[in-house]
Amino acid sequence: MSLFEKIYQDFPMLQTKMNDKRLVYLDSAATTLKPKSVSEAITKYYENTTCNVHRSIHSLSEKTTIAYEKTRDTIHHALNSKHREEIIFTKGTTESLNLLARSLGDFVLKKDDEILLTELEHHSNIVPWQLCAERTGAKIKVLPIDDNGDLDLSKLDVLLSEKTKIFSFSGVSNTLGTINPVKEILSIIKNKSSAYTILDAAQMISQRDIDVQDLDVDFLVFSGHKYYGPTGVGILYGKKDLLEMIPPFHGGGDMIDKVTFEKTTYNDLPFKFEAGTPSIASVIGLNHAFEYVKSLGKQNIQEYTSSLFKDLKSKLSEIEGIKILGNPKKQAPIISFVFDKVSNQDLATLISMDGVAIRTGHHCTQPLMNVLGVSSTARIALSFYNNQEDINILVNSLKKAKEMLS
Ligand SMILES: Cc1ncc(COP(=O)(O)O)c(C=O)c1O
Fold it and tell me: Which atom of ligand 1 is nearest to 225's Cα?
């Protein structure tokens, strides 16, 4: 069995039909498909090992708690965090960023302090900071991109000052595919300011190995569902001393040490930030996603998808009337484009008749759309379960749809 045949068997969604055609799934930046091992682990939890974690001492709970905590170990090793309790389970990237805006932002920011973001950010790395700025009186500054869609690092000199207290940025753009030079950026920020650094790794997690100690980043966030895992679980990594310094986000069960009506003291890390019953099945399922990617090897995945992407980009650029947005120095297999006088919505609807699933819209990056001078784009995002045939079907379908619509 070839590797692709094995992958085809491992991902039941690849055998799904859309409009009676083989599904060509090209929307992996929105969410990735899941291997069978992930859904089987979830079903097993619901059918055989349902119980709450950390609370009861019966052996079922003990077993489930071990499976749940194993995911923390896996992620602790995968990210090379110094301490396992630096890995916090949240609902996803969005919740992790809201947690940071509340617990870190409200704690450290004073009136006229500055939060530095970039033009590439997803709404979930903008809106929580705007809410935080309203509460604290802090101001938001924005690092621009250049014409290729790369961050213009030369502007950092002007933008950074002693007022910059938080710098939050994405490692990989979900709209243009820009792979930012994360280590270089973090080192500039550390040298020129005392800002706390936050890396939105929602897209980067599936594209690059991440070593949080090597990067020396203060906080890092991502979602399980963009890494072949279930929805409803995400990660917040934070340096231990910083997580100990900031107050909790949500209050409730599990995050407490002692509660009286007068005062509550909080549990140790990581539980201080994990109030209430978590997404137990999703956390357990996420471990299987990490194992699956490890079995393929991220480097192999990257080499395979880069070569497929190169072919896709060259075939797309040959289609008459297409305008590809951005041309970053390093690009993940994510690409945005528009056609003159063709509605993106109509285009996506037509090609879905051929079984092709792509994303259209603003991709939750409206400020970036303004910079690019468009209101929406069509976006293709590849993964290791795509192949050459997918590219051919897409390109033929796009050409056909464009002819019909223009
Ligand atoms: C770069 C980036 N940040 C944040 C998010 C938000 O992730 P979620 O909706 O899983 O919380 C996304 C989702 O597309 C993203 O691509």
Answer: 10
Q: Are residues 60 and 92 in the same domain?
A: yes
Asked if residue 2 has pLDDT above 80, the reply is no
Task: Please report the atom of ligand 1 found closest to the CA of residue 231.
Answer: 10
Query: Which of the listed residues 236, 262, 294 is the one where a domain comes to its end?
Result: 294
CB-ligand 1 contact for 174 (6 Å cutoff): yes
Question: Which structural domain, as residue segments, surrounds residue 107?
Answer: 41-294
Which of 204, 223, 235, 282 to mutate to test ligand 1, by most ligand atoms within 8 A of the CB atom? 223
Centre of ligand 1 from the C-alpha of residue 170, in Å? 10
Q: Is 364 a catalytic residue?
A: yes
Residue 35 lies in a domain: no
Which CATH number belongs to the domain containing residue 307 in this structure?
Answer: 3.90.1150.10
251 and 348 share one domain = no
| 102-140 confidence digits (pLDDT tens) | 999 999 999 999 999 999 999 999 999 999 999 999 999
> 293-344, pLDDT tens digit by residue?
999 999 999 999 999 999 999 999 999 999 999 999 999 999 999 998 899 9
Q: Let me know whether 256 and 356 are in one domain.
A: no
Q: Which strand (E) or helix (H) includes residue 402?
A: helix 388-405
Q: Where are the alpha helices (DSSP H) in 160-211?
A: 182-192
Candidate from 226, 233, 336, 377 with most ligand 1 atoms within 8 A of CB, to mutate: 226
Q: Are 329 and 369 in the same domain? A: yes
Q: Whose CA is nearest to atom 16 of ligand 1?
A: 174
Do both 245 and 393 map to the same domain?
Answer: no
61 and 188 share a domain? yes
The mean pLDDT of the chain is: 97
Are 224 and 320 in a shared domain? no
- Decide whether any atom of ligand 1 lies within 6 Å of the 93 Cβ: yes
